[in-house]
Amino acid sequence: MPRLKPFHTRGVCEAGCDEAGRGCLAGPVVAAAVILPADFDHPLLNDSKQLSEAQREKLRPIIEQYALSWAVSFTGPREIEAINILHASILGMHRALDQLKIRPDELLIDGNRFKPYRDIPHHCIIKGDSIYRSIAAASILAKTHRDEWMMRLHDEFPSYNWKKNKGYPTNAHRDAIRQQGVCEHHRMTFALLRDEKNIK
Question: Which of 15, 104, 116, 128 lies 20 to 30 angstroms, CA to CA, from 98?
Answer without folding.
Answer: 128
